[in-house]
Amino acid sequence: MMIKDYSVLMSVYFKENPEWLSNSIKSMLEQTVFPEEFLIVKDGPLTLELDAVIERYVNEYPFLFTIIALEKNGGLGPALALGIKKCRNELIIRMDSDDYSIPERCEKLLLVSNEHPEYGVIGSYEVEFEENTENIIVIHKVPETPDEIYKFMKRRCALLHPTVLYKKSVILTSGNYQDVYLYEDYDLFMRVVLEQKVKCYNIQENLYYIRINNAFFMRRGGIKYLKTVVKFKWRQFKKGYMSLKDFIISAGGQAVVCLLPNRMRKQFYLKFLR
Q1: Rounded (5°) CA angle 256-140-250
Q2: Rounded CA gap, 8 and 12, in Å?
Q3: Which residues pair with 166 in a beta bridge?
Q4: Which of 11-20, 99-108, 172-181, 251-260 bottoms out in mean pLDDT, i.e. has the lowest?
Q5: Quick one: how far is CA 112 from the chain centroid?
Q6: In this model, does residue 168 exceed pLDDT 90?
Q7: Dihedral sign, CA of 250, 251, 254, 260?
Q8: Are 10 and 63 contacting, i.e. CB atoms less than 8 angstroms apart?
Q9: pLDDT of residue 2
Q10: Is the distance from CB of 161 to CB of 80 less than 8 angstroms?
């Protein structure tokens, strides 16, 4: 069966690590099925080192890369929303600027998409690592089937954002990314799954390696994040995406986790939420 062309979509901002960015891009250029387009959104001005990494790859693959440079940093949601619109292929595969994809990742996503054209979003498990991919901390597993994903989405996000292949038309029909602080992905996928009733699927394999550290868990704590969690989930309840019971369990449980010391929060995430 013929595999269709696809675009890689990545957003980069000034705090990224140049070496990690280079390794991330390289992992997508070493895929067993090569991308037809690699679109990078520069979310505001970058450092000279980051610009140098991107320029090196653009010079090496002049017909592959599409670079969109934004005048100021606006956040991941708005950057990806623009990127989605500018991608020239219907099939888009996400990639974060500090992670790693195994060489067969895109091929496996594309094969499932070919075999099941009804799937609008396809993800996978992700391996969470520190420092290097040899130092694996935990495997983040998610439900497999459309029905399992639909049920899971009412309390937690069932699609791991950086792992996914999605269809451009599905994302645009669902309202695209919106500027929801730290919840751009969950907000989008709730609309895709619960509102549009799009069938989604997760490959039960480790195709993606995501970098974590103490800052990863720090961002998921504190009063600001707590307010964001409750406000976001209350809005989903009011829209009818979750029942009152789901809201209490989901928002209440996450509120408790937000207030834990960072070390305890990290242990809780790794033990109970993966």
Answers
A1: 30
A2: 13
A3: 92, 121
A4: 251-260
A5: 18
A6: yes
A7: negative
A8: no
A9: 66
A10: no
Contacts of 256 (CB under 8 A, 6+ apart): none
pLDDT tens digits along 58-88: 999 989 999 999 999 999 999 999 999 999 9
**Overall average pLDDT of the 235-244 stretch:** 85
Q: Using an 8 Å Cβ cutoff, are 150 and 193 in contact?
A: yes
Under a CB-based contact definition with an 8 Å cutoff, are residues 185 and 210 in contact?
Answer: no
For 137, the token pair is: 């901390």
* Model confidence at 47: pLDDT above 80: yes
Residues above pLDDT 70, as percent of the chain: 89
Two tokens at 34?
């090569």
Interhelix angle for 223-238 vs 244-258, to 10°? 170
Q: How many residues does the chain have?
A: 274
Judged on CB neighbours under 10 Å (0-12, 13-18, 19+), 228 is middle
Q: Can you tell me the distance from the alpha carbon of 76 to that of 181, in angstroms, rounded to the nearest whole number? A: 9
Neighbours of 238 (CB within 10 A): 10
| Confidence tier at 36 by pLDDT (50, 70, 90) | very high
Q: Output the CA–CA distances (angstroms, integers) from residue 187 to 1, 182, 192, in the order listed.
A: 34, 10, 9
The pLDDT value given to residue 268? 57
Q: Reduce the DSSP state of residue 207 to 3 states and report it.
A: strand
Q: Distance (Å, rounded) from C-alpha 41 to C-alpha 7?
A: 13
| Interacting residues of 7 by C-beta distance below 8 A, sequence separation 6+ | 35, 36, 37, 38, 39, 87, 88, 89, 91, 92, 93
Q: Is 158 helix (H, G, I), strand (E, B) or coil?
A: coil
The pLDDT of 148-174, averaged and rounded, is 96
| Cα distance between residue 196 and residue 193, in whole Å | 6
